[in-house]
Amino acid sequence: MLGSLTLILLCQLIGEVITRLTKLPVPGPVIGMVLLFCGLVFCPGRMPSEIEKAGGFLLRYLALLFVPAGVGVITHLDLLLKSWAPIAGVIVIGTLATIAVTGLVMKFLNRRGAPAREESLQ
């Protein structure tokens, strides 16, 4: 599991380096996650079980990783109180947009999958 965790963190480090060198407006861990995803997709075999175990371990304790971010938000509480209306607006609009896009994607995917299901029933 230590090797798999090292691989995951190495992908994150490479993502950070790419972000810093290219000054992309994308967080380094996101680029690292894409790199890991591409590596797993183009890997000829299945997902190694060790990486799956390490990923499951990280997901199990993911809530703990948000504690430092939450503490950081609380330290800037005065700034949040000054800008509460735009922040609330972005949260509401973002949530509604996410619901709408999710609904449209599900509708599209259900239409694409419907003929295959009908053929399998016949």
Features:
single chain; 122 residues; mainly alpha; extended; cell membrane; CidA/LrgA family protein; transmembrane
Question: What can you tell me about this protein's structure?
Answer:
By secondary structure, the protein is an all-alpha fold. It has 7 helices and no strands. 4% of the residues are buried. The model has no long low-confidence stretch (mean pLDDT 87).
Offer a quick outline of the entry:
This protein has 122 residues and is mainly α.
**Gross geometry:** extended
- How many individual helices? 7
Portion in beta strands: under 5%
In this structure, how is the largest beta sheet organized?
Answer: none
Question: Termini separation (Å)?
Answer: 46 Å
The overall average pLDDT, rounded, is 87
Work out the helicity level. over 70%
Radius of gyration: 20 Å
Helix-strand topology string: HHHHHHH
Question: What ranges have pLDDT less than 50 throughout 5 or more consecutive residues?
Answer: none
> Total strand count, please?
0
Structural class: mainly alpha
GO cellular component, one term: plasma membrane
Subcellular location: Cell membrane
Membrane topology: Multi-pass membrane protein
Organism: Geoanaerobacter pelophilus
List the helices and strands and how they pair.
Layout: H1 2-22, H2 28-41, H3 49-60, H4 62-65, H5 67-75, H6 77-82, H7 84-121
Pfam family, one: LrgA
Membrane topology: Multi-pass membrane protein
Transmembrane segments: 25-45, 57-77, 83-105
